[in-house]
Amino acid sequence: MQKLTEKVERIVTRIKTHPNVIAIYLFGSYAKGEQTPMSDIDIAVILRNPTAESEAEIASFSSPNIEVVLFHRLPLYIKFEVFKYGKELFVGDEEELLQIKMKVMREYLDTTHLYRTISSEVLG
What we know:
Number of helices: 5
Number of domains: 1
């Protein structure tokens, strides 16, 4: 685990120097403290104005035990989980991060209500 932790720290140190990085989060089983020997480490990177080039650069930090993903590419329910259970590893712009959090929460709550309505109509 020590080697993985050091590897994560090195990755975060390199990613946070990118000028468009708003925040970096640990999420998934490691963030929840539910990891198993087979678990990988999930890191979400929130970018400002992502381009194909910046996406490829950030994604290149993934390794067999560490998955680096782009936040804006995640499904809404995973974005919500990143904010609900995730651990901040780096925040470069608090205000912009807050705006993104509010948008995700609003969309998630709107969608959750819709899913519940549809589910109750379909499943009774």
